[in-house]
Amino acid sequence: MLSDVEDRQQQIVNHLKLNQFAKITDLVDLVNYSEATVKRDLVLLEKSGLIRRVRGGAMLVDNQKIDVPYMMKITQLDEATEKRYIADLASTVIKDDMVLFLDSSTTSLHLVRNLGRFEGLQIITNGIITAAMLSEFTSAKVSVVGGTIVQKRATINGAKAYNDVLTYSADLAIISCRGFDFYQGVTETHEGEALVKRAFRKQANHLMVLATQEKLEQRFIHQAIASHEIDYFVTSKKLSNEQLMKLQEHHTQCFY
């Protein structure tokens, strides 16, 4: 027979298997224990490798297609200080009259807030909300790549989007990532997303990768960008000597 703790944790895992992501408040209601107890359970489950704690909730780690719902990330933009810091650093590379590729990540949405001070920008994006924010907060000429909108992700990717990107040329491509490995480079959980990022790299003179700390040393199934293809790498904290050496081998400029 399971102990109360084991039973409670099993309920949490089963709920995540069914719902992909859960807020802490939902888990409190589910197991009928205090928020402090649920948070302790999540710490233990994360240590066991079953779940991953994220802002405001938890998700499974054994299903690579699971991610925090995109619209939930949007509602948390004002709280994401790490991404805002990365966006501030990234904007120092941008100049007036540039042509940019910009992906659909929430880190890119933070960058949008910094682009209003630039003149003459032309920006191509695969993000629906990204395009709307660019139109609202900047004077840039904005183009959205063609293709199918991915359900619940407010992004356009896949083969059609890849081919559409190939009709453009840009000075700089700016992308985030699901995982970054200092040997392998940028990887993604969705093949279509990896395809679009490869197209951005192919058609841009330079590539910038934006990576929060939780993305570092993570590898997923679909290769998007090789390490040697990255010109600028932006993160929020100083990297280890080994990590810096790997970037320097490819003459990648690092910002943190």
Q: Can you walk through the features of this model?
A:
One of its GO terms (molecular function) is DNA-binding transcription factor activity. Keywords: Transcription, Transcription regulation. This is DeoR family transcriptional regulator. Residues 5-60 form the HTH deoR-type domain. This protein has 256 residues and is of the alpha/beta class. It has two domains: 4-60, Winged helix-like DNA-binding domain superfamily/Winged helix DNA-binding domain (Arc Repressor Mutant, subunit A), CATH 1.10.10.10; 72-254, Rossmann fold (3-Layer(aba) Sandwich). The chain is built from ten helices and 15 strands. It has helices at residues 4-19, 24-31, 35-47, 70-75, 81-90, 106-112, 128-137, 159-165, 191-203, 241-249; strands spanning 21-23, 51-54, 57-60, 99-102, 122-125, 141-144, 148-150, 155-157, 170-175, 179-181, 185-188, 204-210, 222-225, 232-234, 253-255. The strands form four sheets. The chain has a seven-stranded parallel sheet with strand order 6-5-4-9-12-14-15, with helices on both faces. Strands 1-3-2 form a three-stranded antiparallel sheet. Helix 5 (81-90) crosses helix 6 (106-112), helix 6 (106-112) runs parallel beside helix 7 and helix 8 packs parallel to helix 9.
Observed structural traits:
globular; Rossmann fold; NagB/RpiA_transferase-like; 10 helices; three-stranded antiparallel beta sheet; Carb_Metab_HTH_regulators; 256 residues; Arc Repressor Mutant, subunit A; alpha/beta; transcription regulation; seven-stranded parallel beta sheet; 15 strands; DNA-binding transcription factor activity; 2 domains; 23% strand
